């Protein structure tokens, strides 16, 4: 008979006792409890942050609504003032613009105009001051206008819009821009409207 020889060391498996199982379950329970506490605290912070942003957005909404209300009331006022102005100005303005256009000399340009109840303000460009003087004398002969006032005369270079004082170039002759205020002869303009 052959003897059984086992050269490998023998290992005895230790059996875990009940205390070790209880310790492992306790550690797992503590880890889960800590994780749930962390989630609870972080969700409270996020909720507070969201509530503060929500309050901020609500404040912005209230501000914008008040601005819209103010703008709407201003637009209503400006519309009403436009209606009032057109009802107050009861004369046609096209003949006035045409009359000014007929008296403008050649190479003169009407830049802008503004009507009020009794006056017309406009700006025109001329080649020289004698053209301005001739234009004023022509306007004074017109029955549409009671008075002609020159508010301002300025000179400028044609190409780049600089004034003569800024540039001392004697090769080019400057142009002149004049601002006028015309007093409208309302009775004459109104009678024109009736006869048409």
From TrEMBL:
It comes from the Bacteria. The chain crosses the membrane at residues 20-41. Keywords: Membrane, Transmembrane, Transmembrane helix. This is Fimbrial assembly protein (PilN). It comes from Filibacter tadaridae. The lineage of its organism: Bacteria, Bacillati, Bacillota, Bacilli, Bacillales.
